[in-house]
Amino acid sequence: MVSQVNAEPPLRRMVDNTMWLALEENLASADERFMEWLRDAHAMEEQSEQMLERTCDRLENYPEVRERFNAHRAVSRRHADTVRQCIGRRGGSPSAIKDTAGKLMAFAQGASGLFVGDEVVKAILATSTFEQMKISSYEILKATARTVGDSETERACEENLREEQQMADWLEDNIAPITQTYLQREEASGVTAKH
Ligand SMILES: [Fe+2]
Predict the structure, then answer these.
(1) Ligand 1: distance of its center to the CA of 129 in Å?
(2) What is the residue extent of each domain of the chain?
(3) Tens digit of each residue's pLDDT (9 = 90 or more) over 3-41
(4) How many angstroms does the Cα of residue 179 sit away from the middle of ligand 1?
(5) pTM
């Protein structure tokens, strides 16, 4: 009897049964977390693709931004496919992806800045925020892949991360000139500044 009590984890002896059941429910293995995070990344890439597509459709007066966004839209599509392959290789079900995508939708739409006067500036801000989120997500996935010993997924995440960083660098270099162009257009008469 005594040895059974001692075999319990220390935390188990400190909490009541209800709390313990809740704690157990929230415990997940690294593999489970990995799958969850891969699905989040997949949803994020799909959302990124849609957000960039919507923005490109509207950016009439900023051809360089439009071109860069359109290129990254294609990159996001490819990244979504790569992550989907990682999920499949690890035996995940693609059907669960849609739930997470819905949650992220709200974030992206809220941040996309459509229908506001300074649309192009808001688009840059939202895209830049999204890029930072993707960069951190791939860092998390890389660390997790290394922990569970999935070198193929680690390489895939490294490659995606590299391309997110390139996009983030482009945004960093272009935030000032785009903002200045926007402000100049707003001052000028007879031109559209917002997009
Ligand atoms: Fe991406």
Answers:
(1) 13
(2) 30-187
(3) 444 566 666 777 778 777 777 766 678 999 999 999 999
(4) 24
(5) 0.79
